[in-house]
Amino acid sequence: MKKEIIICLLSLGMLTSCGSASSSSDSKKTETSTADRETIFQVSLLQGLTLGDYYGSVTVGELKQKGDTGIGTFEGVNGELIMVDGTVYRALSDGSIETAPDDETIPFANVTFFDADEKQELSDISGIADLKALLDEKVEKLGKNRFYMVRIDGIFKRVHARSELKQEEPYKPLAEALATDQREFSWDNIEGTVVALYCPQYMNDLNAVGWHMHFVSADKSKGGHMLDIDIDSAELKIDFTQGFNMLLPETAKFPTLDLTVDQSEDIKKVETKD
Question: Any idea which architecture 3-271 has in CATH?
Fold first, then answer.
């Protein structure tokens, strides 16, 4: 049986409304629906993936039941996962995109049902550092202990991304695999969507703290894990989320992993181009 860890971080207002129990089945249905939508669902730990546990534990079809927007990867680290509008795309090692079949398995992902809580027009952003600085300002304003799923739709002067070759057993740690098997590509004047996840500091042992960004083009032909970007004009949408639900994988490798090892440097390597 799959094991799920659920952490709910609720505001005082939400606690108050939950305390006002309603006998109406419609009210209960609405509360359940809201709780499901206000949750980041995570498959496994990023730290498990970086140690080489590339075995899938949920299918694409199952992941779609947990959200319509998100990021991740596939069994064997066979490409970068980008979920947009309920469809799961795979960015292959040449930067091309295909739609992932429902029976494909996934070792790591984060998804949510996207509801825009804030919107903002963006223009003339030069580099991913400037984009992250802008997003960090939003986090400081809205609260740095929440999760944030971000969607940016627009026209980009340049996108620099990566994917990787599918790994074969025995699996190497991710930083070692990317050192030889990562492939990078850039596109100019491209329209598309950035999907980004922000994890707060207390997630340090479960995921990468801060921002993790993937990209898919509007025509669904190009994409990958985003390393850099210049934005011409775009719309930023932010969904802040109080709930967190994590599925612990039942792979043969996961129970024996030493998750006490400090992987901060390896995570930095796999998340950035440095």
Answer: 2-Layer Sandwich (3.30)
Tokens of 110: 């984060």
Cα atoms in the 13 Å half-sphere on the side-chain side of 121: 3
Q: What are the pLDDT digits (tens) for 29-40?
A: 444 466 578 999
Spatial CA neighbour of 269 closest among 179, 163, 195: 179
Expressed in angstroms, the distance from the first to the final Cα of the chain is 40
Give the pairing type, strands 147-164 and 223-241.
antiparallel
- What are φ and ψ of residue 37, in 5° steps? -75, -30
Task: Please list the residues that pair with 91 across neighbouring strands.
Answer: 80, 97
Band (pLDDT 50/70/90 cuts) for residue 85 is very high
* Residues contacting 262, CB < 8 A, separation 6+: none
Looking at residue 272, its pLDDT comes to 83
* Rg, Å, the chain Cα set: 18
pTM over 0.85: yes
Contact 240, 142 (CB under 8 A): yes
Structure tokens at 133: 């600085």
